[in-house]
Specification:
With about 300 residues, the chain is mainly alpha-helical. The protein contains twelve helices and no strands.
């Protein structure tokens, strides 16, 4: 049938789709765990701060009032440092997702679409996705419903496209923003793709997903002062919530695409490919981060 991909090409596409599914899913689970930990790490309340001040003052009564005031100040700083270190730990966990599985997953999903296009597939892509600002794209992806009962290759590739944008938006916008609002330092961008090579999905949409990065405003403040101003735990929670939503959307879309593509192949071949990707989709617990990244967080 015109517009359908051959079985040989579908096998290659399915391998990458399975790899993406088995790579993105563990990262989604890691993000859910980070969100749970972040929700438990509330900032010290006013009552907690007051209790700490009272206790430090009582401990210092037998010395002198001046020393009591010093202990009060140290108690406040100690609470702040404890919270900051917990946020640094979470930022490091998020950076592992950012530099590890999500990047590999996005690359595998993009390869699926590239192979489909080269094999003559009929692609029903959404050019509007590539032109949308980040927040508008998030709303569009969340509003987009999964096909009830997809049966065609075209529908399967549309699911792959939605998964691609969900992963791309998660790793390029929401995860770096979450890190920035946790510790005041934005994660360096991943720049492993050739600068002169247009991404297959962006090429199909005839536009770029992301425009040029805005130049940093010159504030005249020391870097650390500017970083401290950007720390906002409430915003970090909002971004991690959205990142989890996008990761779950990606998993659902790619799982559906794998299920549909599998119906065009021999079940024994599908089982063989699944076993192969189980081995290939290994998730590193300690990914190779850019030099000095963890030191910047902690």
């Amino acid at each position: 049938m015109a517009g359908e991909v051959s079985k040989e090409a579908l096998e290659s596409i399915l391998v990458h789709a399975m790899f993406a599914a088995k790579t993105v899913r563990p990262q989604r689970d890691r993000l859910l765990e980070v969100r749970r930990r972040l929700q438990q790490q509330l900032n010290p309340s006013d009552d907690d701060m007051a209790a700490g001040l009272r206790q430090s003052a009582l401990d210092a009564e037998h010395i002198n009032l001046a020393f009591a005031a010093t202990l009060n100040k140290l108690a406040v700083e100690r609470m702040k440092v404890a919270v900051t270190m917990k946020h640094c730990d979470l930022a490091c966990e998020i950076s592992k997702v950012y530099y590890d599985g999500m990047n590999d997953g996005a690359r595998a999903i993009a390869t699926c679409l590239e192979l489909a296009a080269r094999s003559g597939a009929r692609l029903d892509l959404s050019p509007a996705f590539a032109a949308m600002p980040d927040e508008q794209l998030y709303d569009a992806l969340v509003a987009q419903r999964l096909p009830a009962r997809p049966t065609t290759q075209t529908e399967a590739f549309s699911c792959v496209e939605a998964a691609f944008y969900a992963v791309k938006l998660c790793k390029e916008h929401h995860l770096p923003a979450c890190i920035e609002h946790l510790v005041g330092i934005r994660a360096p961008p991943i720049t492993d793709e050739p600068e002169d090579e247009e991404h297959p999905v962006d090429a199909a949409a005839k536009t770029d997903l992301l425009g040029p990065a805005p130049a940093a405003a010159a504030t005249g403040e020391p870097p650390q002062a500017a970083a401290n101003r950007s720390v906002d735990v409430d915003k970090a929670r909002d971004y991690i919530d959205r990142a989890c939503t996008l990761a779950s959307l990606a998993v659902n879309h790619i799982d559906l695409a794998v299920a549909v593509i599998s119906t065009f192949l021999d079940p024994n071949k599908v089982a063989s490919l699944s076993e192969f990707t189980d081995t290939a989709a290994s998730i590193s617990e300690v990914p190779a981060l850019p030099p000095g990244l963890i030191c910047c967080y902690c």
